[in-house]
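During the second year of the project, the team shifted from modelling isolated chains to modelling whole assemblies. The rationale, set out in the original proposal, was that interfaces cannot be judged from single-chain predictions alone. As a representative example for this report, we include one of the complexes processed in the last quarter. Its constituent sequences, exactly as entered into the pipeline, are reproduced here:
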Amino acid sequence: MTIKKISKNEWEIPKEGKMLVPGRIFASEKLMKNIEKDENTINQVKNVAMLPGIVGKSYAMPDAHSGYGFSIGGVAAFDIENGIISPGGVGYDINCGVRLLSTNISKEEFMKKREQLLNEIFKNVPSGVGKGGELKLTDEEIKNVLEQGAGWAVEKGYGTKDDLERIEDNGCLKGNASKVTPRAKARGRDQLGTIGSGNHFVEIQEVQEIFDEKTAKAFGIEKGQITIMIHTGSRGLGHQTASDYIHLMEKEYGFKKLPDRELVCAPINSKLGVDYREAMNSAANFAFANRQLITNQVRKSFQKFFPKIKIPLVYDVCHNIAKFEEHNISGKKQMVCIHRKGATRSFGPGRKELPTIYRKIGQPVIIPGSMGTFSYLLVGTKEAEELSLASTAHGAGRVMSRSSAIRDLDFDKMNKELNSNDILLRAGSKKGAVEESPEAYKDVNEVVRVSDELGIGKIVARMKPLAVIKG
Amino acid sequence: MEKEFVFLEHPSDIKFKAFGKNLDEVFENTAKAISSYLSPDRKVESKKSKKIHLRASDLESLLYSFVDEILFLLDAEKFVVSKAKVSINDNQMEAEIFGDNSKEYEIKQIKAATYADMYIKEIAEGNWECQMVLDV
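Output from the structure prediction step:
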């Protein structure tokens, strides 16, 4: 197999064998070395290129690593008449995503209350793993959450109308609760308002550097300000929805002809294709409501120590989702079903999907680093729409296995290093936290630098963590 | 004692092999592997049990469903697995899953079973092995 370097940060996998379109990887030399270490990642980009109805190219973002079916960082668009929809192109954590909140307090003010505040948030925002959360939903409430998303939470008093405007799709995709199985509902019943474990977190940060003053101002971000980042998804309800539809699609369409069993899929317009889309949208709504509830708990915790504080939402992005969007494919505008799995939408100015407050500027793109490293706020661009189906990276991407991290790294040493960088950590499981050690991840600075150089997401601001909660 | 399971390197998630004299034992050791990942700091006690019945089109699918069931019990019933007693005939499984109230433990999340790199086979007479990756 030959991979052709076609520009400083672009690599082409030429069409070969059963591939219907070429593959395209966005990476620097340094990131490409990481990507090539695991041949699965490249093979997964090629496998996706073989799926029926794919248009354009099979893409991998700068933070790509191997996933299930699609690679993490995989993006692909399918013709809505002849194409497919695949749970393997969305991921098990449907609408895993990130939201960024700004505040009107400074680092100095925050640091005086840091430890008490962190303990308060740790108490109010449970991981929920094996324990569940405070809220146990009735059948009627679950239906409303699944069909109204963040809107349900706001109606219940867990946020404001302003919040909704600052969430992708206003925090609600077209769902149908009856397409989510009773098993999936049972798993999610008491998980709303919980972060889970793994790489999910609540982090309090300081805006350390502004790279684009005008855009930062439009996003309500300034140097020295405290921001809050929330990273979580649809919890057990979404995981079960993915598993359930993988089973149903296997039964209906089989997997023998596919290059990978995890790429099981259904025609977009088939009954099962439509059912999955409605179930996936419902699970996405659960995730939007989840992040909204956590936001409410975080706001209440801050208000206890800073009664007059303002904590507006900057934006909320999904990085595991399939959506219908219009894109320019080989010079022609076309409606496609775009799968973004571990990739962030990166719309430039003018897109009708953006809220009026950001429509002239471009979409806020939120890229968290690993625990203890920088996170970034970027802005979507017209270049992204031309180059990468309006997509960019979603995070740092792992380089070290979880088993190596547990074997080779030590919690106390890691915690000491975090402390010496002025970062306070509260974690549910020590071993869980060690798995998420900064050493286990790629350099997020390099990932966003590549995004910025390509122009598929331009850097606006860099945030440094001050306090982290892990499940 | 013979090795029951082993965790392997994986770039982002959890990969393991489980071993056994026969198919039933491979599944039983899979349950133990998952238990040890879910609660790394404390061995899960076998205070309660649940009976399950599963049917699948092939062994891989049966393994996937078995793990799916264990994860379902954790989220939906706050039941964390310690071990299992399994009996498989013709892609049908009768199993008793043992475990405890998960609220008593610090649990690490497993999102889902996957088919990635999965196999189940008899590598030599009386020597079975399976491999699986879990999305965490």
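The mean pLDDT of chain B is 96. The first strand of chain B starts at residue 5 and ends at 8.
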